[in-house]
Amino acid sequence: MILRSIAAVFRFEVTRSLRFGRLFWWLALALFPLLVAEMFRSLEPRILQDEREVGFILYVLVVRMLCPLTLLLWSTPAIHAEIEGRTWGYVAVRPGGRTAILLGKYLAAVAWSTALGWISVTIFLVRVFPEGWSALWGLFVELVLLSSLTYGALYLLIGVLFLKRAMVITVSYTLLVEVVLTLIPAIVNQATVDYRLRSLFFDGLGVDLTAQRGWSSMASEAGPWHQVLVLAAYTGVLLLAAFLFLRRRQLVVAEE
Amino acid sequence: MTSLLELERVTKLYGPVIGINDVTLSLPPGGYGLLGPNGAGKTTLINLVTGQLRPTLGRVRTLGRDPWNCGAVLRRIGLCPSTTALLPAVSGLDWVAYLLELQGIGRSAARERARRAMRMAGMEEAMERRMGSYSKGMRQRTKLAQALAHEPDLLILDEPFDGLDPVGRHEMTERLREWMREGRSLLLASHILHEVEAVAPSFLLICSGRLLASGSAEEVRALLADVPAEIRIRCDRPADLSSRMLESGLADGARLEAQGALLVLSTKAPLAVYERLPEILEESGIRATEIISPDESLQSLFDSLLRIHRGEAA
Q1: What percent of chain B stands above pLDDT 70?
Q2: Where are the domains of chain A?
Q3: Which residue of A90, A104, A219, B125 has the fewest CB atoms within a 10 Å radius of its CB?
Q4: In DSSP terms, which residues pair with B120 in a beta bridge?
């Protein structure tokens, strides 16, 4: 029954988002990496002709920017939007309503982020790197999906823990941990989502970063399945924590 | 028979603020009006019995079980919250069908039931329209539809008459009466006495988080029969008028307020006071500029009950 409720929330959220304004901005975001690439190429026509250069810019712009940004807008305010919109009372008194809202909205956020990432990567590769697009496309399909699932769960948990100022806290966390901490060449960077995605990315490109002097701590030596399993475990633990916190929280809509 | 609601010494604190204070009650299935002025604790009580809040102290049972995270209880409750905010870009039909799906009902059955509930709530014409275009009355009817659509055993309504015009109020009253005639249970929270009286046969009177009284309308009136009413008189010689009223035996007590400018008479016979007051004023030559009578409103009822509660009235 709970699966049916989760599916209902997912369908409802996706359907009500299919509005012209939102689709316009979604498409504009999907075109953003291509616009950046075209801008670079207009300044220096010889760049972005190599698989590694194309992969690097796609990794930064799509996997590390677009997907987390979409999830920041969708996943973080999943519960707060119901409280703010005063609709929480209607869903919270349904059997399994809290869980259904949490996971249904999470899946909707992941779906939007993944679709955005895939479309963005496809447009980018077809336009910028038509001769070698197929090799990179498979890698980025995987990276976009994993990025969306893991960051979606992380941001969902932050949104449940900090209903007020969740956006600010999420952005701060991302900058501090997923941008700064992840680049520190020490064992602590292994705790970040980016470390796992980065390891998968370099592995997919065939770059052995660990063999290069000074870069050994920036990527994992373990195989790709290890990274996928770690990211899956992250996602599971984060979702479970969000579920347990929400289940314990006493949330009511303030009187008008 | 399982109780509808059972509260055992329930207290709910929001930090230092008391929402509900040591409330104990046990209600068999039936219709109840939850009466209290704004901020009395009605919504807190509703949130407790619908499992959205947990009591700080005490024990809550709804339909025989602890409602907190209890799907079995939630499946049997229909709640119409006080908020009028609805999703503006979604049609009433889609929204009610969606909430029915969250109730565990299949997609096509949910849509059919939602259609039926919207029709029953008088929303047949507008059910396909976006809720952003609904009037306040239409919103109330849509809210009622979502609470009724899954045919709950207990319907809980928080201020359902807010924003309704007289016709809408009449229609809502009739619908709720019909619900009661079907032998179902109802908890109707309002701050307006006559609205509740028209639907529910029994009352729970709550003020400042405390349950002050409960029972039928007659029982509550009987409780209040011996409670003195307060009449406020603004005049040029309040002290003089005070002694005359006490001497005449019309007033049981008197005090001066507003730096001696306002006389507050306490009387068990307000009608006799109104009858004799013009005569007394004329005889004494006292000029009264304002007489404030205790009205029939709920607030005065609660003022009286609070006085009983505090031991200020016999």
Answers
A1: 92
A2: 2-248
A3: B125
A4: none
Taking only the tens place, the pLDDT of each residue in A98-114 is 999 999 999 999 999 99
From chain B, the residues in CB contact with A1 under 8 A are 104
The tokens describing B118, both together, are 């919207």
The verdict on domain B5-223 having CATH code 3.40.50.300 is: yes
B-proximal residues of A, 91-130, CB under 8 Å = 91-98, 100
Q: Cα torsion for A227, A233, A234, A237, to the nearest 10°?
A: 180
Q: Kind and range of the H or E element at A233?
A: helix A224-248
Smallest Cβ–Cβ distance between B104 and the set A1, A90, A256 belongs to A1
Alpha-carbon distance of B224 to A240, in angstroms, equals 54
pLDDT 10s digits, B8-21 = 999 999 988 999 99
Residues 6+ apart with CB under 8 A from B293: B229, B231, B270, B274
- The closest of B39, B37, B34 to B50, measured between CA atoms, is B34
pLDDT tens-digit map of B66-100: 999 999 999 999 999 988 888 999 999 999 999 99
Pairwise CA distance, residues B263 & B283, whole Å: 18
- Residue B221 binned pLDDT confidence (cut-offs 50, 70, 90): low
Residues B270 and B229: beta-carbon distance below 8 Å: yes
Task: Answer whether A95 sits within 8 Å of B72, measured CB to CB.
Answer: yes
Return the domain boundaries, chain B. Answer: 5-223, 226-309
pLDDT of residue B1: 64
Asked if A89 and B90 come within 8 Å (Cβ–Cβ), the reply is: no
pLDDT for the residue numbered B299: 58
- For B226-309, CATH number? 3.30.70.100
